[in-house]
Design a protein that fits this description.
single chain, 371 residues, alpha+beta, binds zinc ion, rod-shaped, four-stranded mixed sheet, PH-domain like, 52% helix, 16 helices
């Protein structure tokens, strides 16, 4: 009994999309109307199609290649049943191919899973990634970043350029940064907020408010030592990288500093470091004071001074910004001083009268005359 299967026929003179026709399977071979008769011996079964599950029958006729495929999954099933098992043995490759196709998909899904896992680990170990990226950034690039941040800092115009206040900060800063790989830049800004903060690359802002509020030069030294550690430990750099986002970091690592600058420049100089980072700056800052033979108790004293006052809204100093636990910091700083008795340490001296005069003169000159 002859069975007819709907197929698509492809051949050299036929349209590329194939011609719908039908295929008759008899005991000798297949017959495609009107006149092609192909013995099974001349047929080659193959697997093709987008999903790699399409049964194709190939043959040659009068020197030309022909191919047919079933026109639907149902007719393909029909075709498979009608064709002799011998021919279908060629379809073992089909299963293998289908299997390998599955393997590809499985690999892709597995790969996606690994990627998701990697991202999760990446988030989890974000600090490590950030440290790695930061380690790829040169001091020179970091300094460029700092300059970009400074140029976006809206109070840079209020810098006092000369006088006793400026000299004091620069001299104390130079003493505390001896042997550093950074070229520090100290800026005294006319601002009553009791604050100081570091930008990447060694740019440190010291507000006049800090100089006015500090009870001693030791306290200022403690603040500067703390800020210096934000530079030395690259806290400021990592903070900027973190804020600027992954794209900027990638550009920095790839060396496209200028593009990254644009992304970073809008970052405000206000920093909110984690407690862990602040604790590190406190500890290493205190160690730095000792190294420079400066009494480290200025740190605890300054904390106490700040803690005794409620910071005005909107002017939370960098020192307190991320610290509801100032009490802990005071205790830690006092403990450090106790554990490191320093017989050779000296108190930092300053001419506070001259410094205040320098600040006030600057203030007066900028004030509008009273009516
Ligand atoms: Zn800090």
């Amino acid at each position: 009994m002859l069975q007819t299967v709907p197929v698509l026929l492809f051949g050299p003179t036929l349209p590329p999309a194939g011609v719908p026709t039908e295929c008759l399977v008899n005991e000798h071979g297949i017959r495609i109307p009107p006149q092609q008769q192909v013995p099974f011996a001349n047929l080659r079964a193959d697997i093709g199609g987008f999903d790699h599950d399409q049964l194709q029958l190939h043959w040659q006729s009068e020197g030309s290649d022909y191919m047919l495929v079933a026109s639907s999954p149902a007719s393909q099933q029909q075709l498979k049943q009608l064709l002799p098992a011998k021919l279908i043995t060629g379809l073992k490759g089909w299963h293998v191919a289908t299997l390998s196709q599955k393997t590809v998909w499985n690999s892709l899904i597995y790969g996606a899973g690994v990627l998701v896992l990697a991202v999760m680990i990446g988030v989890w170990q974000y600090d490590h990634l950030l440290n790695w990226a930061a380690s790829r950034i040169s001091i020179e690039t970091e300094h460029k970043m700092g300059k970009a941040v400074l140029s976006a800092y809206n109070k840079r115009q209020d810098a006092i350029v000369s006088g006793a206040a400026v000299n004091f900060v620069k001299e104390l800063g130079a003493r505390l940064t001896q042997g550093s790989k950074y070229q520090y830049q100290w800026l005294v800004i006319k601002d009553n907020a009791v604050n100081a903060f570091a930008m990447p690359g060694g740019i440190v802002i010291v507000n006049t408010g800090l100089l006015k509020k500090a009870g001693s030069a030791d306290e200022v030294a403690a603040v500067l030592a703390h800020e210096i550690q934000h530079v030395e430990q690259r806290h400021a750099l990592k903070h900027m990288m973190n804020s600027a986002g992954v794209a900027a970091v990638v550009m920095l690592v790839l060396g496209d500093a200028n593009a990254a600058m644009i992304m970073i420049a809008h970052q405000v100089s206000t920093q909110f470091f984690s407690r862990q980072v602040e604790a590190e700056a406190d500890l290493k800052g205190a160690q730095l004071l000792l190294k420079q033979h400066i009494h480290p108790e200025g740190m605890a004293q300054f904390f106490k001074r700040l803690a005794s006052e409620q910071p005005k809204e909107g002017s939370i100093p960098e020192w307190l910004s991320s610290h509801p636990d100032t009490t802990n910091r005071i205790q830690t700083a006092e403990q450090f001083t106790k554990q490191h008795p320093c017989t050779y340490c000296q108190h930092v001296t300053w001419d506070i009268e001259a410094i205040l005069e320098n600040i006030n003169r600057h203030n007066d000159s900028d004030e509008k005359p009273q009516p």
